[in-house]
DNA sequence: AAAAGCGGCAACCGCAATGGA
DNA sequence: GTCCATTGCGGTTGCCGCTTT
C-alpha cells in the first residue's frame, strides 16, 4: 500500500516554488487578504468534500446503495477505494451513509456484515521505518547491478512469473471474503424461503446481496443456479478483478 | 411550548505515508 | 540517513434540525 503524493496528480506542479509563483500567491493574498483563519487541512477537507466541482449531493440511489454494499463486502471500510467507484461521491459521504443508513438497514433485515476488519492493519512507526529502509536497500542493490546482471535477473523473474503466475515481486492479496448472510440463513430449499420471508422477495438490493455473498463465499448449499445468471457473474467478476488491480 | 432524545452529516483528530531538504 | 512539512485516510466527535414526550 502507499499513498501517492498529491503532486502526482496530472497537471500538478511539484518542487520548489518559482519567483513568478511566489508573486502570484502574494498578489492573490494582497487582493483577497489572508481572510480565512483555517488551516490547510481544513480547507482541503472543505474543498474535497463539499466545494469541488462534480460533487453529487442528495440521496443515494438504490444502485449506489447496492454498489456500496458489495464493495464493502470486498474491501471493508476502505472508503476512499469505495468512493473511487462511485462518481461524484466522497469517501466521507459514503462512510456517513454506511453508518447511518446501510448498516442499520442490513441489520434490520437480519444481515450483519461481519466486520472482520478487512482494512489492513496500520503499520507501526517502527515497522514503517523498517519498510522504508528495506525499500531503499533494494533500490541501492538494483542500481549497482550491471546491465547484464539486470537482464539476467529480469529473465529469471519472467520465467518464474510464468511458472507461478505471480506478477513480479508483487503478489495480489485478495481481500478475505466476509460472510454477509447471517448464519442460519443458508440457501437450502427449506431455509431459502425462511430467508426470503425475512428480506422480502422484491428487494433488489438483497437479491444482489445474496448473489454476491454466494460468489464470495462459495456455493456450499447447492444454490439455485438459475439465480447465478451468467451475465451478472461476468459483470461482478470483471468489477472484482478491476478492484484488485487498483489495490 | 419546552425539554429530551435521536439521527444525519460536516468537520476534526491522529496517524501512516511521502518526498524534499 | 534523518528530519520535517504535507497529504490522505479512517475513526470519531459534535453540531443542528427534527421528532417525540
From TrEMBL:
Q: List where in the cell it is found.
A: Nucleus
Q: What are the protein's UniProt keywords?
A: DNA-binding, Nucleus
Q: Name one GO cellular component term.
A: nucleus
Q: Which domain of life is it from?
A: Eukaryota
Q: Extract the GO molecular function terms from the UniProt entry.
A: transcription cis-regulatory region binding
Q: Please name the GO terms of the biological process aspect recorded for this protein, alphabetically.
A: green leaf volatile biosynthetic process
Q: Does this UniProt record's set of keywords contain Transmembrane helix?
A: no
Gene3D superfamilies (alphabetical): Homeodomain-like
Instruction: List the biased-composition ranges (Basic residues).
Output: 116-129
Stored InterPro entries: Homeodomain-like_sf, Myb_dom, Myb_TF_plants, SANT/Myb
Isomerase among keywords: no
Pfam families, alphabetized: Myb_DNA-binding
How far does the signal peptide extend, from start to end residue?
none
Question: Per its UniProt record, what CDD domains does this chain match?
Answer: SANT (cd00167)
Disordered as annotated region, ranges: 109-157
Provide the HTH myb-type domain boundaries: 52-106
Q: Where is the Myb-like domain?
A: 52-102
- Its name, as the record gives it, is Uncharacterized protein
Amino acid at each position: 500500500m502507499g499513498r501517492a503524493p498529491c503532486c502526482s496528480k496530472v497537471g500538478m506542479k511539484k518542487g520548489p516554488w518559482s519567483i513568478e509563483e511566489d508573486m502570484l500567491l502574494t498578489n492573490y493574498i494582497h487582493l483577497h487578504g489572508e481572510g480565512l483563519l483555517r488551516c490547510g487541512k481544513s480547507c482541503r477537507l472543505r474543498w474535497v468534500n463539499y466545494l469541488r466541482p462534480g460533487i453529487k449531493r442528495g440521496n443515494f440511489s438504490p444502485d449506489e446503495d447496492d454498489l456500496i454494499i458489495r464493495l464493502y463486502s470486498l474491501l471493508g471500510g476502505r472508503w476512499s477505494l469505495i468512493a473511487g467507484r462511485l462518481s461524484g461521491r466522497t469517501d466521507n459521504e459514503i462512510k456517513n451513509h454506511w453508518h447511518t443508513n446501510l448498516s442499520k438497514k442490513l441489520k434490520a433485515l437480519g444481515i450483519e456484515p461481519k466486520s472482520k476488519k478487512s482494512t489492513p492493519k496500520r503499520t507501526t512507526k517502527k515497522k514503517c521505518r523498517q519498510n522504508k529502509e528495506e525499500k531503499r536497500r533494494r533500490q541501492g542493490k538494483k542500481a549497482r547491478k550491471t546491465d547484464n546482471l539486470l537482464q539476467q535477473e529480469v529473465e529469471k523473474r519472467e520465467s518464474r512469473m510464468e511458472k507461478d503466475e505471480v506478477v513480479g515481486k508483487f503478489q495480489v492479496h485478495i481481500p478475505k471474503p466476509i460472510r454477509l448472510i447471517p448464519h442460519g440463513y443458508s440457501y437450502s430449499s427449506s431455509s431459502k424461503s425462511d430467508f426470503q420471508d425475512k428480506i422480502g422477495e422484491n428487494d433488489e438490493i438483497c437479491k444482489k446481496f445474496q448473489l454476491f455473498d454466494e460468489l464470495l463465499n462459495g456455493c456450499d448449499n447447492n444454490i439455485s443456479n438459475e439465480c447465478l445468471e451468467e451475465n451478472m457473474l461476468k459483470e461482478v467478476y470483471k468489477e472484482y478483478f478491476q478492484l484488485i488491480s487498483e489495490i
